[in-house]
UniProtKB/TrEMBL annotation:
Key word Transferase present: no
Source organism per UniProt: Bombus impatiens
PANTHER family, A to Z: TRANSLIN AND TRANSLIN ASSOCIATED PROTEIN X
CDD domains listed in its UniProt record: TRAX (cd14820)
Record keywords, A-Z: Cytoplasm, Magnesium, Metal-binding, Nucleus
GO CC annotations on file: cytoplasm; nucleus
Compartments, record wording: Cytoplasm; Nucleus
Residues annotated to bind Mg(2+): 133, 188
InterPro entries: Translin_C, Translin_fam, Translin_N, Translin_sf
Full protein name: Translin-associated protein X
Similarity remark: Belongs to the translin family.
Gene3D superfamilies: Translin, domain 1, Translin, domain 2
GO molecular function: metal ion binding; sequence-specific DNA binding
Length: 281
């Protein structure tokens, strides 16, 4: 009799436990229903973050293509070795630079439409700086000057025609990126100076030297001493200027006593380690 009683007590305890579990599940379901708005918000945040990351990766790919093509254009511009070839090379370089602006940069501008461009500047910064280096190098070879920041910004601004209006989209070109790009230009001018020496165009060496010297003077007046990257670029600019000045010194002092081909070899041996390789592109 006592066993039956004990069994009944155990059975009642199990039923009570089962009822408690069911109530707990119901309570969880009720809480989930009450917090559905919060869950929807978090799902919206997740979707927004996914879109941001996907957009960032697409811009990175565009920026990588811009970097590669800009380096190829710079390499093309270095093949100018005589006046007869200069016009055709400059024409081809101009066409390729316009293609980069009309296709790759325009795609970036579409991606940045309605977005905060500073959130994505890092994705295409390297490509932008390389493009600025290429377009200013082209401008120097063509007109002995270089495009300003506003001119490059205007080049990367696009008007899109719609049914009722015309909207404007653009790629962010900050003054900071422009400064870094033209600082890299001095490296190409240093190589140009050595190439001109090889072709016997010694007057261009002095012209390039004066141009880079003016750039260095301007940099001294506008750089921020607390910016490590700009300071590094300024040091590189100063080194490039010293190399160009040494080329001019060698031409002026030893040019009359050393044959031209030996003079070029002397300069090339001194600065061979500073040359940038384009073979990977």
């Amino acid at each position: 009799m006592s066993q039956i009683k004990e069994g009944g007590e155990n059975h009642g305890h199990c039923c009570t436990k089962k009822i408690n579990i069911d109530d707990k599940r119901k309570e969880i379901v009720d809480i989930t229903d009450q917090s559905s708005e919060i869950l929807q918000q978090f799902r919206a945040y997740a979707t927004e973050l996914d879109n941001k990351h996907d957009r960032f990766e697409r811009i990175v790919k565009f920026g990588r293509d811009i970097t590669i093509e800009s380096k190829r254009i710079i390499f093309l511009l270095h093949t100018i070795d005589k006046k007869g070839k200069q016009e055709s090379v400059l024409r081809e370089a101009d066409m390729r630079l316009q293609k980069v602006a009309r296709s790759l940069f325009k795609s970036i501008a579409h991606e940045l439409e309605g977005q905060d461009p500073y959130l994505y500047l890092k994705a295409y910064r390297n490509g932008l700086e390389e493009y600025i280096e290429a377009v200013t190098f082209y401008q120097y070879l063509k007109c002995d000057n270089m495009k300003s920041w506003l001119e490059i910004e205007k080049t990367l601004t696009y008007k899109i025609s719609e049914i009722n209006n015309v909207k404007t989209i653009q790629v962010l070109v900050s003054p900071y990126e422009y400064i870094l790009g033209i600082a890299d230009l001095t490296g190409e001018l240093m190589r140009l100076c050595i190439n001109n020496l090889a072709t016997g165009d010694r007057a261009s060496c002095y012209q390039t030297c004066n141009f880079v010297r003016d750039m260095y003077t301007c940099f001294l007046g506008c750089t921020n001493a607390s910016n490590r990257l700009v300071n590094r670029k300024l040091c590189t600019l100063e080194q490039n200027l010293h190399k160009i000045e040494n080329v001019c010194y060698t031409v002026k002092i030893r040019g009359s006593e050393i044959p031209k081909h030996i003079l070029v070899d002397l300069v090339n041996e001194e600065y061979a380690d500073s040359d940038e390789s384009y073979h990977a592109y």
